[in-house]
User: Which sequence fits this backbone?
């Protein structure tokens, strides 16, 4: 049955519509089950976001006339696909990779098969714009535009794509198949196809026929072109091809232009010559054209002929203007348009005629008047009559400048000059404007088309918009004067119509006001008194054309009166040397000039300030007779004439004659106006700084503005201003001092600045260099009123009164190392903020801050025995402001007691010089009991096996740390140094270590440690060694023998050594297991769950397990790490992780660390409120790339890869960052026990950093998550890492998924090799079916498939080269899947298949894939039957797959 017409399809649809939905679905399902390929096509169509169809035409002419876009593609690929989207709207979705399969062309001119490939076709009937890329159907090889960008189709019709060149097909009557084929015929350099150029536009020729058009300007008689195609082509024989005389528009042979067309060329390198020994080179180099198009070489310069210079068709023969231009007749002055143009042949002949100045009169002229505003200095009109095909010769007619009167009528405030031309014989016109050349710039209509004038009239071209000017509105009527004063006239009139943009009011012929079109009244102010004025009004049309003036009226102002009050009196500047005042003139001058002002200070005589010639509006005066800190009141009054005779005479002598007459006749009672409102000013500098009080309560009583600022910067500056008119400080601003106010101690990073005379403040903080602290939203901080403020973490708060001191502080010694304190909370007074906590100080140093305000007691521990301590307490409010300290209390500790148990005992198993050893580490007791711990007893299985001694040097160091102020001090109440407890001594903070080498593999032991205090015998040794006794307490004389503390918590160890790290390319079976999916973090303890899976996985052959990221994280999945060394997260505790890793070593399963170091989240905000303060390891903004989009404020170098959008990008170019990354990896491998590495999101930073990290770790097995479907891109990445990194095989993932769903396995065979990286570099290919991203992301279509499809995929991966990875989600899909996965793993293990095992692909086609691996395993996928033959034994199978092993 042939193709159905639209009517036949419609008839079938009507018949089906009679059935119910269920019946239609059952019929469709039954039919599709018999046509698998049709089912695949239907699924593709339903899931594709762009409407497409197979072209159902047999000729290019019909294809070019169909709706939408038809695309033809020439390629040697067997099954090309188009990855595309509709580009007619923004944000249209793309198809899923690899896209829509193309079908073989049915168009006769474009055959489906040829020697070097064939044509494929697809249609998009519902869109005219398509953005796309072609690929080989596997998503591994891509065909992009020549510049590496996506292809773009803009416009309906038939388009062809071949050799990277996209062209629109233009059907020409009489062009047969042979002619069309010539466009795509390839040639050798000896017989290269060089086509004649013909006539028309060079640009259109290159666009329609393709290739390269070369135009060359030369006076040689026989110019030749010596050339080659591209960098690898062979050169023509010297002298090359003869250049043909040009017949292309605008490039006539008579002017010396020669041309050649290379229809198949994409690149051209050439040198013109005269056919002999003269050559025209580009300096000392050859000329090079790097892309198709039309190009011209003129005077040694090679330029492309673009759409901008060739969109308008040029005539075959340019119109020649007369040699002698007729002289135009004289025009009346001034002339609005001073040139009228006569066009010969292109436009009708006509004599020039005089043109009126006014636009309104131009509307009455015959023909076309064109007005054009531009910034070009010499615009040209390239035009023709619409009914005539002849164009003017380029560049066209030069446009003359319009008379300034016309420009003013059309809004002279616009940018550029106005040009005008009158074409009296033209009724229609098609035109474009250019700048006159030589490198033409063009002004065209929207969409790049020509402008068109359809009728005669006056036309305005402005900003790409061509508009016909309409007649102006009539003159306003009914104009009258409604009132007058000594300095103003009020007018009114009737509206001139609806199409009025504005009214222009003229006084004595001069424009004085422009009003909106809806306003028909105005008041003319600031006039001179007792004067007569003439007024007229004109209306402006919405196009800006002024109509006729109204009838004139006259009005006379009244006699002069008092001036008004001066305006805006303010202090411009003030300090101890003077006060500068500023004000503006009154709104009403009383009808006469204001020549002076009277400035009154307090009750002192007024000062006269004359008005200068330039001071008619704004005035200033400086009072220099001031005392620092004193306040004064000022007022100002305007004066017509000063009262002092000498000043009056000077003013009258300088005044104009008419002004002098007015001033002389002003009555004295009208001479001085009212005074402004009084202004109080102080002779101080608002930017002056002072010292803060040590007592916050006193500072709160002070005037001005105080700012306390908490920052970790070593130097803090404030860039600020108190009022905008006073200006800002010079950068970096005022340097803040360390705070001396007790409530804001400098040892807690507080700084302060005090402005005693400021009333407001606007500021930003900086470190004196490049780091800035601004308010949220990158705004300035602002204090609108006086007071005491504190700025912490980007928040500016007004400081409340500090709390009172606590009362009744009591201290009592509990024993030799502990002191118990208690106190009572203070009462809250009015204006005080609530108490949030208490700070406890020992010997003047803060040692503790309570949690909350309800607890009013504290036990200080780990103190020295026989020692006096001084304590005090301060209350802290919810603004973190501390009140005064209590009166101190002194407590002396008692005799020493036993120490507490050692802390954090931990054990690891390792090898030392090939010998097994158990290494113990612990920290000293939380409380030493008041005496030094001199040793530790090591218990193994309940028996003391060793004693760890604290060195004498450490104990002597303790004594040196605690010297008294004076040797004779008997009680030692004051210390030279603040270290006054064991907790502050360096040796107490250090971890302690011991190693047990008396162990054997497989043994289990239990270890404990306890602390032993210093005994008499060793105390005597220390005294005899010169140890100075601490604080006069005669400490060494009071030690007791055999004082020991309790044992630490036990730690159980099974002596299992860490395995040696695996390496890439080792020829042994490796099966990786991804041990988590997105839901695993919701388990109570995922590490414990995995612990139970180890035996089963190991028995099946799994020997490498990829564990989730181990560190503390912002998100529950742990891919936004925060504190690297905190190994507690949603997957479980650090202890559970260590148990799991140890058990994996017992089971010989390699633990793989997920290294997430491309990005990292901060745990704290910095002083500017930005999340840029990191802990464990400690970083700040310097570790974050400055262009990281997730968190602004980083000061590091730029991102070296793709910036992360969800977390700050880490600056790996920083040596400290690299040091910390290496230290973390080393810790996780050597302390925790990870032996392989997986690097997350490696696209985020440069490959050489990743290479260095792997090498620093000892080059273990390492794999990178480089999400890239292009095997060439992945192969290049592996090369950049110099082979030390494997990659996840995304190209094979995409191909295998497509093949299994289509039951067509042809794409798996790439010349006898497996698709993807597994075929090119199997030692560095980690193959997978799904992972935690792909199985739940819609961008890749979600999970790989159903259970049967997943098993088919694993049957291939677990039997083939590469390192296969089993995904936990797939392992737990169902018991059936789990059972078969374990079988497949066992088959790989038993056969010894490794990453580089040899592969023989026996079949790869529709319905069947078959292969034999290493001669030991055979596998078959698909619906077709296949057998490896005799000598094989069936090992595992399921729906459409089977696996055999050698019998």
Assistant:
């Amino acid at each position: 049955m042939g193709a159905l017409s639209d009517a036949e399809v419609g008839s079938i649809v009507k018949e089906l519509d009679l059935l119910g939905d269920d019946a239609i679905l059952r019929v469709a399902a039954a039919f599709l089950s018999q046509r698998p390929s049709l089912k695949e096509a239907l699924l593709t169509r339903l899931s594709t976001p762009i409407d497409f169809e197979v072209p159902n035409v047999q000729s290019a002419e019909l294809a070019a006339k169909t709706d939408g876009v038809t695309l033809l593609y020439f390629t040697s690929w067997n099954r090309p696909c188009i990855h595309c989207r509709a580009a007619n709207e923004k944000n249209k979705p793309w198809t899923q990779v690899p896209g829509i399969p193309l079908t073989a062309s049915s168009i006769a001119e474009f055959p489906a098969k040829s020697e070097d490939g064939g044509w494929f076709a697809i249609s998009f009937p519902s869109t005219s714009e398509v953005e796309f890329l072609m690929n080989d159907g596997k998503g591994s090889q891509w065909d992009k535009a020549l510049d590496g960008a996506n292809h773009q189709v803009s416009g309906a019709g038939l388009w062809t794509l071949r050799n990277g060149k996209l062209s629109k097909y233009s059907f020409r009557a009489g062009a047969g198949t042979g002619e069309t084929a010539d466009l795509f015929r390839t040639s050798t350099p000896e017989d290269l196809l060089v086509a004649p150029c013909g006539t028309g536009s060079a640009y259109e020729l290159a666009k329609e026929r393709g290739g390269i058009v070369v135009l060359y300007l030369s006076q040689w008689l026989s110019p030749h072109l010596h050339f080659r195609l591209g960098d690898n082509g062979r050169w023509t024989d010297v002298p090359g091809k003869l250049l043909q005389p040009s017949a292309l528009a605008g490039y006539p042979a008579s002017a010396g232009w020669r041309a050649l067309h290379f229809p198949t060329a994409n690149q051209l390198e050439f040198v013109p010559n005269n056919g002999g020994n003269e050559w025209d080179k580009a300096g000392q180099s050859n000329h090079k054209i790097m892309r198709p198009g039309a190009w011209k070489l003129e005077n040694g310069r090679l330029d492309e002929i673009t759409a901008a210079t060739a969109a308008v068709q040029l005539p075959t023969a340019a119109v020649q203007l007369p040699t002698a231009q007729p002289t135009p007749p004289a025009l009346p002055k001034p002339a609005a348009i001073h040139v009228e143009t006569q066009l010969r042949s292109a436009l009708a002949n006509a004599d020039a005629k005089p043109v009126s100045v006014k636009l309104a009169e131009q509307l009455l002229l015959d023909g076309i008047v064109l007005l054009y505003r531009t910034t070009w200095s010499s615009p040209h009109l390239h035009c023709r009559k619409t009914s005539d095909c002849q164009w003017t010769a380029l560049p066209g007619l030069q446009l003359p400048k319009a008379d300034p009167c016309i420009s003013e009528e059309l809004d002279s405030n616009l940018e550029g000059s106005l040009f005008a031309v009158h074409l009296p014989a033209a009724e229609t016109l098609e035109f474009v404007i250019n700048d006159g050349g030589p490198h033409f710039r063009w002004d065209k209509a929207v969409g790049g088309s020509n402008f068109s004038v359809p009728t005669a009239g006056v036309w305005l071209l402005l900003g790409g918009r061509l508009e016909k000017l309409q007649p102006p509105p009539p003159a306003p009527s009914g104009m009258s004067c409604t009132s007058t004063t000594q300095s103003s006239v009020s007018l009114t009139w009737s509206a001139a119509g609806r199409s009025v943009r504005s009214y222009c009011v003229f006084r004595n012929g001069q424009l004085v006001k422009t009003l909106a079109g809806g306003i028909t009244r105005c008041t003319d102010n600031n006039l001179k008194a007792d004067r007569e004025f003439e007024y007229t009004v004109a209306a402006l049309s919405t196009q800006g054309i002024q109509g006729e003036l109204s009838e004139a009226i006259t009005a006379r102002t009244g006699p002069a009166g008092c001036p008004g009050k001066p305006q805006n009196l303010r202090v411009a500047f003030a300090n101890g040397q003077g006060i500068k005042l500023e004000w503006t003139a009154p709104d009403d001058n009383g009808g006469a000039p204001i020549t002076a002002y009277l400035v009154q200070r307090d009750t002192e005589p007024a000062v006269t300030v004359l008005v200068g010639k330039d001071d008619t509006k704004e005035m200033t005066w400086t009072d220099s007779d001031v005392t620092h800190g004193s306040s004064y009141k000022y007022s100002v009054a305007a004066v017509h004439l000063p009262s002092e005779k000498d000043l009056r005479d000077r003013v009258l002598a300088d005044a104009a004659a008419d002004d002098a007459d007015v001033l002389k006749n002003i009555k004295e009672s009208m001479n001085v106006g009212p005074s402004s409102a009084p202004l109080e000013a102080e002779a101080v500098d608002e930017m002056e700084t002072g010292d803060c009080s040590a007592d916050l309560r006193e500072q709160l009583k002070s005037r001005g503005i105080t700012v306390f600022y908490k920052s970790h910067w070593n130097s803090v500056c404030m860039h600020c201003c108190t009022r905008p008119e006073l200006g800002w400080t010079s950068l970096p601003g005022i340097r803040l001092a360390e705070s001396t106010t007790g409530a804001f101690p400098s040892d807690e990073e507080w700084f302060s600045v005090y402005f005693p005379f400021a009333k407001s403040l606007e500021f930003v903080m900086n470190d004196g260099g490049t780091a800035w602290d601004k308010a949220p939203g990158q705004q300035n901080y602002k204090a609108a009123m006086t007071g005491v403020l504190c700025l912490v973490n980007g928040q500016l708060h007004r400081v409340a009164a500090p709390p009172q001191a606590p009362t009744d502080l009591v201290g009592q010694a509990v024993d030799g190392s502990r002191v118990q304190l208690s106190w009572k909370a203070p009462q809250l007074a009015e204006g005080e903020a609530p108490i949030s906590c208490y700070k406890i100080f020992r010997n003047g140093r803060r040692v503790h801050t309570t949690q909350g305000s309800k607890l009013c007691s504290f036990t200080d521990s780990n103190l020295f025995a026989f020692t006096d301590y001084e304590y005090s307490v301060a209350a802290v409010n919810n603004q973190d402001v501390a009140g005064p300290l209590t009166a101190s209390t002194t407590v002396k500790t008692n005799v020493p007691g036993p120490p507490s148990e050692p802390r954090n005992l931990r054990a690891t198993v390792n090898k030392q010089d090939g010998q097994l050893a158990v290494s113990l580490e612990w920290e000293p007791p939380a409380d030493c009991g008041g005496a030094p711990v001199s040793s530790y007893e090591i218990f193994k299985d309940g028996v003391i096996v060793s004693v760890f001694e604290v060195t004498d040097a450490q104990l002597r160091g303790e004594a040196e740390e605690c010297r008294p102020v004076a040797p004779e001090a008997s009680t030692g109440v004051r210390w030279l140094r603040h270290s006054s407890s064991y907790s502050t001594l360096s040796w107490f903070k250090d971890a302690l270590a011991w190693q047990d080498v008396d162990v054997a593999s497989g043994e289990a032991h239990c270890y404990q440690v306890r602390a032993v205090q210093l005994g008499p015998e060793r105390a005597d040794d220390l005294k005899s060694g010169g140890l100075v006794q601490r604080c006069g307490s005669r400490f060494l004389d009071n030690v007791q023998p055999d004082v020991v503390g309790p044992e630490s918590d036990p730690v159980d160890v099974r002596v299992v050594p860490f395995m040696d790290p695996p390496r890439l390319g080792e020829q042994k079976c490796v099966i990786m297991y991804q041990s988590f999916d997105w839901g695993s973090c919701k388990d109570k303890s995922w590490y414990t769950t995995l612990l139970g899976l180890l035996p089963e996985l190991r028995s099946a052959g799994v020997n490498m397990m990829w564990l989730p990221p181990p560190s503390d994280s912002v998100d529950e999945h742990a891919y936004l790490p925060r504190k690297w060394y905190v190994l507690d997260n949603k997957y479980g505790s650090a202890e559970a992780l260590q148990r799991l890793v140890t058990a994996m070593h017992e089971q010989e399963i390699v633990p793989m660390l997920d290294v997430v170091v491309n990005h990292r989240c901060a745990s704290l905000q910095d002083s500017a409120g930005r999340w840029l303060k990191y802990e464990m390891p400690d970083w700040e903004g310097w570790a974050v790339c400055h262009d990281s989009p997730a968190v602004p404020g980083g000061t590091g170098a730029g991102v070296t890869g793709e910036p992360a959008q969800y977390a700050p990008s880490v600056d790996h170019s920083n040596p400290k960052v690299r040091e910390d990354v290496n230290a973390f990896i080393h810790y996780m491998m050597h302390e925790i026990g990870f032996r392989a590495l997986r690097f997350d999101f490696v696209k985020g930073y440069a490959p050489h950093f990743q290479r260095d990290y792997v090498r620093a770790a000892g080059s273990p097995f390492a794999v990178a998550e480089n999400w890239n479907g292009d095997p060439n891109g992945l192969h290049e990445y592996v090369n950049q890492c110099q082979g030390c990194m494997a990659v996840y095989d995304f190209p094979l993932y995409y191909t295998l998924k497509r093949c299994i769903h289509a039951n067509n396995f042809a794409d798996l065979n790439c010349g006898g090799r497996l698709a993807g990286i597994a075929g090119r570099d199997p030692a560095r290919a980690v193959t997978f079916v799904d992972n935690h991203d792909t199985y739940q992301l819609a961008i890749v279509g979600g999970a790989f498939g159903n259970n049967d499809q997943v098993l088919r995929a694993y049957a291939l991966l677990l039997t083939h080269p590469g390192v296969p990875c089993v995904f936990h989600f797939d392992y737990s899909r169902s018991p059936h899947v789990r059972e078969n996965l374990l079988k497949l793993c066992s088959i790989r293990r038993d056969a010894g298949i490794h990453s580089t095992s040899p592969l023989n692909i026996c079949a790869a086609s529709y319905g069947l894939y078959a292969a034999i691996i290493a001669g030991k395993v055979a596998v078959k996928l698909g619906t077709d039957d296949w057998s490896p033959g005799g000598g094989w034994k069936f090992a595992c199978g399921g729906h459409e797959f089977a696996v055999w092993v050698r019998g």
Summary: The radius of gyration is 46 Å.
